[in-house]
What we know:
Elements: E1 9-13, E2 27-35, H1 41-46, E3 51-55, E4 60-62, E5 68-72, E6 76-83, H2 90-103, H3 105-113, E7 117-124, H4 137-145, E8 149-152
Parallel strand pairs: 1-7, 1-8
Antiparallel strand pairs: 2-6, 2-7, 3-6, 4-5
Amino acid sequence: MARRTIIQIALRVCVITEREGKRGQNLxxxxxxxxxxxxxxxxxxxxxxxPFRIWGVGCQRQTPKGKKLDGVYNYSYCCLRxxxxxxxxxxxxxxxxxxxxxxxxxxxxxxxxxxxxxxLVVFSEKxxxxxxxxxxxxxxxxxxxxxxxxxxxx
Length: 154
């Protein structure tokens, strides 16, 4: 019998911009990956983007601006910011990321099975107003098939 693998991604939709003419003005996706031991540079390469922040287990702790802190990281971390150049709404941005993740399901499943985890944050750095959107059943079905949780922080 074939073994079924499960990808689990915690999805959090944060305060986002209002709809003013463009559907998803200034939306950004932050895809955050944690793992107890893996080097996560390969994850960034798989999604063809440069890490916004990245470190490996055992590396010196530091602030985002590079100031050294006491201690070392006890897990590997990679934060990828996927910018919304096409001004898509949140559900379309999520669908694009799901397309990329589903195209190499084994890699992402292996990260989870070996102790890793993912979170996804959709946000805007510019406008800080509330955001309303309907997530259609097809998108929710894709999230469900990958065992992805959907949460809101608005």
